[in-house]
Amino acid sequence: MTRTITVAAGPAITASFNAAATTCEGAVNGTLTVTPSSGTAPFQFSIDGGPFTAGAVPYTFTGLSSGNHSLLVKDAIGCISNPSIVSVATGPALTTTASSTPVLCNGGNTGTLTVVAPTVGTAPYQYSLDGVTWQSSNQFTGVPAGTHTIRFRESAGCQGTTSVVVTEPTAVVTTTNTVPVICNGESNGILTINTTGGTAPYQFSVDATNWQSATTFNLAAGAYTLSIKDANNCITTAPITITEPAALTATVTTSNASCNGGNDGGLSITASGGNGTYSYSIDGGVNWQNSGTYNVAPGTYSVSVKDALNCIYTTTAVVGLTNDLTFTPQTDVTICESRSTQLNVVSNGLQYDWTPATGLSAVNISNPIASPITTTQYIVTITLGRCVTRDTVVVRVNAAPIPDAGSDRVICYGQSVTLQGSGGTVYQWAPSTYLNNASLPNAISTPDRDIFYVLSILSDANGCAGLTTDTVRIHVTPPIQVLTYPADTIGYPGDQFTLLAVPNDPDVTFYTWTPSVGLSNTLVPNPTVTIGAIGSDVRYKVVASTIAGCKGEAFVNVRVYKGPDIYVPTGFTPNGDGKNDKFTPFPVGMKSYNYFRVFNRWGQIVFQTKKMNDGWDGTIGGQLQPEGIYIWMIEGLTKDDRVITKKGSIMLIK
Length: 654
Known about the structure:
The protein has about 650 residues and is mostly beta strands. It has eight domains: about 1-90, Immunoglobulin-like; about 100-165; about 175-240, Sandwich (Immunoglobulin-like); about 250-320, Immunoglobulin-like (Sandwich); about 325-400, Sandwich (Immunoglobulin-like); about 410-475, Immunoglobulin-like (Sandwich), CATH 2.60.40; about 480-560, Immunoglobulins (Immunoglobulin-like, Sandwich), CATH 2.60.40; about 565-650, Immunoglobulin-like, CATH 2.60.40.1220. Helix content is about 0%, strand content about 50%. It is built from no helices and 59 strands. It has a five-stranded mixed β-sheet with strand order 52-59-58-54-55, with no helix packed on it. It is elongated and about 205 Å long.
């Protein structure tokens, strides 16, 4: 702002003034510029009665507060202007707003204040709650509840204030009610809680570890610290005590009953503690009475005492017995299996009961006969009135020896075998056939056929006889006979066919052929033979044997002819003497016949077949044909499917 002021009187010194307002209310940063318009330079300047100061023109005063200021100008010859009053305007007021967050817990200091930075003045700004301590942050933490005045200032010194209220929840107020534990040692005491204030909802704990929202606790007797925590985790505590009655207890005294005196035993109960007014029971709480005195039979009783709140104390009481029942203990006995012994207990008892009943002639007498199969412990229960005792006797049963005739044996015809009996000390074999001594466990048998021997034990080391027998079979392998197929045969050089040994004993498992010439395998029943050169006839021997070493043998004659071919005889004699009775061609290396036919002199067929090694016996319809010449024709296939056809004549000779 620029103003021109004319000094009315005094020396002819005039000046113009330019004043700049402070930046904000309370700031000391206004300026005032003086420009002399008359007088003799150089000039000096004074403000508000201060000393004159020389300076360049125009001259500026700085750091001025708002308001009126008195100015003087002096020139070089000492002329001084009249005082001029110049006003420095006041800048805008420094204002702002602030917000707060409440204190979480009553009496705490967790509130916060946040100041909005002023929009006037010159940064940086500072803030204070007490006007002494200033901070650059616009937020205050750890503030208690109440009304707080916040001071703020800018860099030029302008200041302002604002007030903010920090609220807090009301104090947590808790009332409790306790109910004592019903029975000493239980956990059914009750704590009930009623809470106001703070910030709901609440949680509760009696150990500062486990929390619940329910306002009721079931507790054992004792001192507790109740903790109440509101929604802001504000915690208050209160001491709690749960009481309990004295422990309910009882003492029991007893006196013995007698065997025949009825319920003359005594039982008396004296109770203390608990909740007074007692009831009594001696049957585990089924039946109750107001008196603690009982007349009872001997035995063990479950004693119970119940107080006015149904607290129960239990214990066990034994009413004894004066026992005059006597007996003489028995001595254990030993018998052989299938034998008997008489037991006998000597006692003044009136009733007897034996267990187990197995093997006893009776179970309700003092002297039963015992016939157990195995060793048995018998217990006899002896009763005299209510008095009962037991005696034990062991009847040891030596098991009957079990004969072992040994395993079945296989021998060859003509061999002997030693029997292997065991299981006792005195033996008997039956039948005695073929045996050298039927009383020996290792009797020697030389049977000529299969036989079964039955072994009995007449006595063992305990003098007990066997109750069972055992049987052994002696299998006598008959003389082994072996048939060979073919029995004798004819082949041609290089021909191959199978030899077969067939024994009459199915137990034969081993075979040996000799010599090995031309055989594929000498240890099988059916080796393949390969025929050698003409003239190399071979007589093969086969030995068949069982695992027991029984043997049989047979022979096969293999003759070598030229072939393949069919050899036909020139005559035959069907007279039944077993020699040359049939007209049979001899095939060498042939696989099959297509036909073999025989014709009489009139061209009639008297015989025909396709079977190899089959021949004509000289008959038709069972009638022997006349002696004479007969014509034959034969056609066969070799092993390599070549056809051989031959024909000729033969003489039937009677």
